[in-house]
Write the structure tokens for this entry.
Amino acid sequence: MTGAERHDAWQAGDSYDVYMGRWSRQVAPRFLEWLKPQSGLEWLEIGCGTGALTAAILEFCDPESVVAVDPSEGFIRKARVNVPDPRVEFRVEDAQALSLPSASRDVAASALVLNFIPDKVKAIREMKRVVRPGGMVGFYVWDYPGGGVEFMRAFWTAAAALDPDAEDLGENSRFPFCTPDGLIGLAREGGLEAAECVPIEVPTVFKDFEDFWRPFTLGAGPAPGYCGSLEPDARERLRAKLERTMARDGEGSIRMKARAWAIKAFA
């Protein structure tokens, strides 16, 4: 396990919801609007997490069924609570070796998880394998290299100023392929030709500094994992530096943006 991977604490579904889930829920409907799928389809969702994309598929796409998989038992438990719909079957599975038969689903989709899968090309090939000929494969990831998740960029900039070792732990350093060219290249390696890529941007508004800071203390994700690994005095220095530097509006809110890159292709 690398130093970076030590901080990838993804088991806590409740903590992830506070940290990233609330923003994931904003991106999902916009992604589905871009996909424009027909109703009544059979879906596969890779890396369902706590169910943000799953819920959006049910609300906006009128699917026949959804098989949603994630390797984290903690996330699957939380997803079952968040999305108690009989059309969904949640499974603990590895995206690199799915149990579903070939050509058994109409759509395969993945939200904000591809960068955390060890063999990304293998996962894309599995999505293509499971989709019927002519079916759709779509996924999206945050724009880490471009600093598209502004609150993460602010956190790691402050952390690196206090701890040079933090420089290599940030998502921008670890996931350089999360660009249009990088993602289209991965899609092609996975057997998906003529892939399209578009940006999806959402506001991330924190009501005050505590609303901004608290998710970083909960341990779900690389930045919170790093924050939790710090000694109390080092964590307080990081908190104080961020509190001094964060811009606020007249009501004390911190207004930022988050951008994802979305890919669509046909099997």
Confidence is low (pLDDT under 50) at residues 1-11. The beta strands are 42-46, 65-70, 88-92, 105-111, 131-142, 196-206, 254-266. Residues 5-146+170-202+259-266 form a domain with the Rossmann fold fold (CATH 3.40.50.150). The first strand starts at residue 42 and ends at 46.
